[in-house]
From TrEMBL:
Keywords: Disulfide bond, Membrane, Signal, Transmembrane, Transmembrane helix. This is Apple domain-containing protein. InterPro entries: Bulb-type_lectin_dom, Bulb-type_lectin_dom_sf, G-type_lectin_kinases/EP1-like, Pan_app, S_locus_glycoprot_dom, SLSG/EP1. Residues 1-31 form the signal peptide. Residues 330-412 form the Apple domain. The chain crosses the membrane at residues 420-445. Involved in sporophytic self-incompatibility system (the inability of flowering plants to achieve self-fertilization). Pfam families: B_lectin, PAN_2, S_locus_glycop. GO terms for biological process: recognition of pollen. It comes from Coptis chinensis.
Amino acid sequence: MKTPTELTRPIHSLLIIFLLLLLYMHFQVKAQELHKGFSATPDSSSKSFQPLLTDSSNNFSLGFLRVNRSQLTLAILHLPSSEPTWFVNTTRNLEWSKNNKLLFNGSLVLSNSHEGVLWSTQSANGNTLLLHNNSNLQILDSDSVITWQSFDHPTNTLVQNQNFTSEMSLVSSNGQFEMKLGDNFIGLYSTFEQDSKQIYWKHTAMQAKAEIVQGNGPLYSQISLHGYLGTYQTENAPVDVLPFDSFQRPVTGIRRLKLESDGNLQAYYWNGMSWLLDFKAISEECELPSSCGSYGLCKPGKNCECLNNKTEYNHSSGEECFSSQTGNFCEEKEEGFWVLRRNGVDLPYKELMEFEQMDSLDACEDSCEKNCSCWGSVFNNVTGYCYKIDYPIQSLVSVGDENKIGYFKVRTVVEKKRHVGYVIGIGILVCAVLMFFAVAGFGALRIWNRRTRVNWFVHDDGISPGPYRDLGSGSFRSVELCKS
Ligand SMILES: *[C@@H]1O[C@H](CO)[C@@H](O)[C@H](O)[C@H]1NC(C)=O
Ligand SMILES: *[C@@H]1O[C@H](CO)[C@@H](O)[C@H](O)[C@H]1NC(C)=O
Ligand SMILES: *[C@@H]1O[C@H](CO)[C@@H](O)[C@H](O)[C@H]1NC(C)=O
Ligand SMILES: *[C@@H]1O[C@H](CO)[C@@H](O)[C@H](O)[C@H]1NC(C)=O
Ligand SMILES: *[C@@H]1O[C@H](CO)[C@@H](O)[C@H](O)[C@H]1NC(C)=O
Ligand SMILES: *[C@@H]1O[C@H](CO)[C@@H](O)[C@H](O)[C@H]1NC(C)=O
Ligand SMILES: *[C@@H]1O[C@H](CO)[C@@H](O)[C@H](O)[C@H]1NC(C)=O
Ligand SMILES: *[C@@H]1O[C@H](CO)[C@@H](O)[C@H](O)[C@H]1NC(C)=O
Ligand SMILES: *[C@@H]1O[C@H](CO)[C@@H](O)[C@H](O)[C@H]1NC(C)=O
Ligand SMILES: *[C@@H]1O[C@H](CO)[C@@H](O)[C@H](O)[C@H]1NC(C)=O
């Protein structure tokens, strides 16, 4: 007879192994620094985030983040909220697959087994990779000198105490909006057209506490613990204070500023449970650069509409008035556009746009029509101001004033699509006809074969794969497949 201890011994050792495994995994996840030689590949069992390096407070972690279920990015996550504070900027989307690998060989390198290096910190002599409790990821060399840090390469988010300089930019995750620091202002720009950045929000330094001195160096901005975005030229005093709602009110959690995908700049603080909104650069929905998508019309307090008043347009479910348009009309030989007009519309940030005064509506529209880099114009019939739009048309604001007249070019994509449709249609028809002849010919050949009693399909073993046998075995196989 075995004693109870003897009986449970295997369970004990199993438990110990299990605990050791847990402990091992715990330390794996909790690593606070990584050393040269480290490498990792995405684990297919990871549902959303695969941590690789976690900071001492356990609030932030660097790891592989799943985007759109099947795509991969390397990100630093605020763990309690799963909000990324930083992620790598690769030029294309990556698959969540073992072909993609992260390695630290002095540089932190994200590479693909087929395409080679996809992203790299290019910091050759790194020795240690460190994640701080403020979410800053640093690469230190053997003398503990910082050779690279994520704080110098922000993506769409700025966190407390991170310096934002005039060499940096925040870019919204869809790549359409950008925040930059000017010589005396903070600007938000839309980049709907590569060569033409349009400013849509501008905050000029108030220079209340200190003045901007020419030659005293460029400005930098920093989120303050006291609830504002401070802009500095020297550390002594800010040249500008952009207050948040919690200005001068102490909060326990960290603060962040994010350039959202709709182009708004928003600040938040963490209250221990969730992120509370603390600042919004653009408070009116219609003032956003693309509140209703391209060729959309924003009616304050109401739904979106299309400029051509298309019925059944639901912007919130992702519908567009016209398929998204890019580029300009300069490379096209033919005109390539048709014209859409609408009265009672205004540009959402026209005070930041340039204009020309013109005598008539015709003169304004004419100057846009003739210029291949112009996408449209808005003319004020009372003041004579002519605003020209040199990027694909985004959203306009509905105003009561019928004297504001919009002229918009719409690329004739539909026609091209129909041409493509025709070509495909004709292709299919030709294929069908060819197949018909082939089948008919084959049938005729078989009939002819049967009549002449020559069987071209007799195999070496003398068994002909006749139609009945083939069919029989085929259906048998499918039945078997259905069963299994
Ligand atoms: C973060 O680290 C700094 C020192 O590096 C320390 O003073 C601070 O208390 C830490 N904060 C948290 C939340 O752990
Ligand atoms: C996360 O950071 C906050 C401060 O922002 C700190 O109070 C908290 O203890 C941290 N969480 C953990 C698990 O360390
Ligand atoms: C995720 O999918 C949405 C819609 O399908 C798309 O608009 C977006 O660009 C995708 N994001 C990435 C990072 O690919
Ligand atoms: C690290 O690896 C990448 C990709 O294999 C390579 O391009 C780079 O030269 C390596 N860097 C060093 C310092 O070895
Ligand atoms: C991402 O990379 C592209 C080109 O590689 C660059 O134009 C863009 O500014 C980068 N974005 C950020 C946020 O660094
Ligand atoms: C931000 O800039 C100031 C002034 O140049 C500097 O003292 C400070 O260390 C910087 N902070 C970080 C996190 O780099
Ligand atoms: C837009 O369409 C709606 C309903 O079809 C109509 O009530 C409205 O008057 C139209 N607006 C314009 C400016 O044509
Ligand atoms: C528009 O789409 C959203 C999301 O798909 C849906 O919730 C809403 O009811 C739709 N509105 C209309 C008027 O169909
Ligand atoms: C066409 O428009 C662009 C952008 O608005 C402007 O820079 C350019 O000077 C215009 N060209 C002519 C010939 O007016
Ligand atoms: C523009 O104003 C003139 C006179 O002020 C008027 O005759 C004309 O009809 C207006 N045009 C439009 C399109 O409203």
